[in-house]
Amino acid sequence: MENTFTLGWEEWLSLPVLGLPAVRAKIDTGARTSALHAAAIEPFGTASNPQVRFLIQPNPEDESLEITCSAKVVDRRQVTSSNGEVELRYVIETPVSIGGREWPIQITLTNRETMAYRMLLGRSAIQDHMVVDPNASCAQPELSFALYKGLPRKRPVKRPLRIALLTREAENYSSRRLIEAAHAKGHVVEIINTTRCYMKIGGIVPEVHLDGAALPNFDAVIPRIGASVTNYGMAVLRQFAATGAYCLNTASAIGASRDKLLAHQILARANIQMPVTTFANSPKDTKSLIDLAGKSPVVVKLLSSTQGKGVVLAETTKAAQSLVDAFRGLDANFLVQQFIPEAAGSDLRCFVVGNKVVGAMKRTGAEGDFRSNLHQGGTAKAVRITKEERETAKRAAKELGLAVAGVDMLQSATGPKVLEVNSSPGLEGIERATGKDLAAIIIEHLEHHVKPLSRYRESQMTPQI
Predict the structure, then answer these.
(1) Which tens digits make up the pLDDT trace of 300-357?
(2) In a domain, 453, yes or no
(3) Is residue 268 assigned to a domain?
(4) Which has the closest alpha carbon to 247: 11, 451, 428, 86?
(5) Whole-structure pTM value
(6) Rounded Cα–Cα distance for residues 183 and 181 (Å)
(7) Same structural domain, 317 and 355
(8) How many Cβ atoms sit within 10 Å of the Cβ of residue 442?
(9) What is the CATH number of the domain that holds 100?
(10) Best CA proximity match to 393, nearest among 443, 353, 446, 345
């Protein structure tokens, strides 16, 4: 038989999963249901996965300490308060910790701002081996509101996250996999069409609007911004960041990776090897531009190229000059790049998440095509990369500031050479080649990096727009 565990008429407790390290509660055996102070209660999620977000000021004497919590809803229940009022309340289930013991309880959410205690522990939360001494105050060890200083957080967070997937392609493989992985961990994902967003800039609170209403605050944003809307997508992403959301990749990092010339300059500054790359604006410099890239053949690449489109191999100097003149005639921005023959139409795609290479594949171009992109008919297989290749991929993503990246490299006689760093790498090819659940790894990264939940602390930060 378990030893008797005594509770006083008031006790200090913690609700660790909600991120509340210290709450002073009244133990009330006259009340069946436990209750927690909650303001600005905001339901979200779906009918099959209902969630609720709410604010709590755990210290009645310090209104500046304001914590945002979220939890899964297990019920909605009519509760009659001590003054006879009937209220329909959300019910959540979460572990409570008192005196070193922890057990799950159900809690109703209600506004208790006029009450002396932010929480009431009812008799349904008191286990059989527990007794309440009505003459004892804090029979178990006391805690302190000082525990909120610095807002210590366990990583990863266990609370449900409200995630925005910023994309115009909600039905493609990558979007579906990210949604599945998030739902499997109890999170809620809302699809936000990038180009349909509009912003209120300059108000007291940063806002992103969609379909005539302001969007709610999100814990995290996963940007899957198409190349054709990069600039507007970056502006929307900066606005989401200003609201306090954690952005999987920042707007500045996406901008740097999408500008191929800038990306190459950043990587070159960090002494990361890449094929020799040349760029010029004047048509008078065509021959010198090609000569600087090395002997023919050379690769001529549009700065806005994606999935292998706009990438052409010029077998001779004359062919290269014709290509350059043609691109200039179209008023297109392009660069000329050294061709690496020993790569033999293959490249490596290293998938980086949080400064770790979590998957790698070798892509080989279709018969007669030097481009290895899967969208151009190439094939892929999982591959074990070298330490040098792994470190090069990690460094390339880090220099561009990307938390998630697809780093494309060529295997040359002098070591790995970075071709491109993709800020919205597709999941289909590499998940099928490696058999790894990379979508789940991305969601785990989000769980480790969502921002602290104190609205007061976040309000002290100066948004960077």
Answers:
(1) 877 665 555 677 888 777 887 787 777 777 766 777 888 888 777 788 999 999 999 9
(2) no
(3) no
(4) 451
(5) 0.71
(6) 6
(7) no
(8) 23
(9) 2.40.70.10
(10) 353
